[in-house]
Amino acid sequence: MIEASVGVRLGTLDLDLELSAADDEVVAVLGPNGAGKTTLLRALAGLLPLDRGRVVLDGVVLEDAAAGVRVPPEKRRCGVVFQDYLLFPHLSAVENVAFGLRSRGMGRRDARARAAAWLELVGLAGQEEARPSALSGGQAQRVALARALAGDPRLLLLDEPLSALDASSRVQVRRDLVRHLAAFRGVRLVVTHDPLEAAALAGRLLVVEEGRLVQSGTVAEVTARPRSRYVADLVGVNLFRGRASAGSVTLPDGTVIAVADPIEGDVFAVIHPRAVALHRLRPEGTPRNVWLGEATGVEQSGDRARVRVEAPLALVAEVTAAAAAELRLAQGGPVWLSVKATEVSVYPA
Amino acid sequence: MLFFLLPLAGLVARAPWNDAVGQLSAPESRLAFQLSLLTSFSATALAVVFGVPLAWLIARVRFRGRNVLRALVTLPMVLPPVVGGVALLLAFGRRGLLGPLLAAAGIHLPFTTAGAVLAETFVAMPFLVITVEAGLRSMDLRYEEAARTLGAGRWYLFRRVTLPLVLPSLLAGSVLCWARALGEFGATITFAGNFPGTTQTLPLAVYLELETRPDAAIMLSLVLLLVSLAVLVGLRDRWLGAG
Description:
The complex is a heterodimer of chains A (349) and B (243). Chain A contains 9 helices and 21 strands. Chain A has 349 residues and is of the alpha+beta class. In chain A, the strands form 4 sheets. Chain A has a 6-stranded mixed β-sheet with strand order 7-8-9-3-10-11, sandwiched between helices. A 5-stranded antiparallel β-sheet of chain A has the order 2-1-4-5-6, with helices on one face. Chain A has a 5-stranded antiparallel β-sheet with strand order 14-13-12-15-21. In chain A, strand 12 and strand 13 form a beta hairpin. In chain A, helix 4 runs parallel beside helix 5. The radius of gyration of chain A is 25 Å and the shape is elongated. Chain B is an all-alpha fold. Chain B has 13 helices and no strands. Chains A and B meet through strand 7 and helix 2 of A and helix 8 and helix 9 of B.
């Protein structure tokens, strides 16, 4: 169980967030590049001193900026898998894994035997004497994992564990990683910018942007109710923020979206691209949100096309490729959008 | 180009090839050889023992006066060696700053083999310090961070990670340092004098023999030239290969 409030200023980054994670869950810290994810991980590992806040692991205070308490990284029981693994290039695979055991005083033979067992566990039996430069990306990742786990840590931190791998080995390595994460007893924190990776590895997400925690919850909760443009873009929906009152949401620029929800106050409004209908002529009938806009780009994937439209509000619409062709959207020009009020989901900001 | 080649050609052309072995195995030459090997390797060993911690200090520890220390370490590289010799005399000589102290301890440095080693170390150590410091600076510090998360304390970290990773620089620096120590002339002759068998190293012997036995001087010069060439070839990947 870890409870941390982390305040670190580093260049233009101002990291300030609280997090807690229990032993029975895998938590992913998800965010764009430069959000402060790696900084957070380094701070938890003790490689970067906190300016403010404290870190408590299993009831033991590892760091308390106000009280001047700071356990150095070598005394925290914290295993780290670094983004590019950082296997010691001058040591063989088994020596890399044995490093942490030896540094904590285990004898050479015992440490090697234990390290070899770890290598076998991660499926690298027979590669004991290989140098890191001779290992494939997937193998190096597994050595790094074995090295982090061999010291029997209480806290396991993984920084973009799959990003250095090519697509072909990623699936297999990810499957193995899920298995090893499940077998580990202790706090597991995975840092990633890849939502698929986060969803595959972790049960709970912490979304971090510009050093702040913007959203947390299960994968389903976060994707159902994005609270930032970043998450909305990951999920692929249109997100707006405004004030709701009497069945409509007013955006900061004055645009009004009609909604079916009787909610009041500061809200997020999400419109799924498939809920946006496009027409060349002004649509007749019931939709209460109708805007005139301009198609500025079409991306086709399979039999679907995603159309960017600049209207009073910028929207992405998803229509069939056939419809996009029929409407001649690729040529741009004026286009009518309509969205049913019942298709706009609204929740408090 | 010619300016650099011609002197070398002269050395090769005038070398007494038919009596090469004889000239080199003359007692004076052999004595100078043995002494030079002893002093240059001793100086290199001293430079490694003191220079590596010094390089680490300059590269890794932030402290007041760090730049002054770096400048001070580099000074012997640009200082005329003879001035270095005078300075050493004034520090460790009989009437030098530490003279009485050393005399009381029964240590006598000027005009001894130990003095020759000291002079060579003074002049050659900067090459080692600078090279190792550059190696430490260009090292990826994250390896050390990884080692710390794996429980490595300071000394273990230095021994198992820092030192092996900086080993190429240490080797290159040692070779440079050794070559410089082998060729040392000015500081040695000033501080240690020119006594065959105790302080007359190869360069000193060359200078002296040029008057009396020019053939021996040429052969000894050729040997020193070959050593320099070997060092150059040995380290070429470091200087030329990367470019």
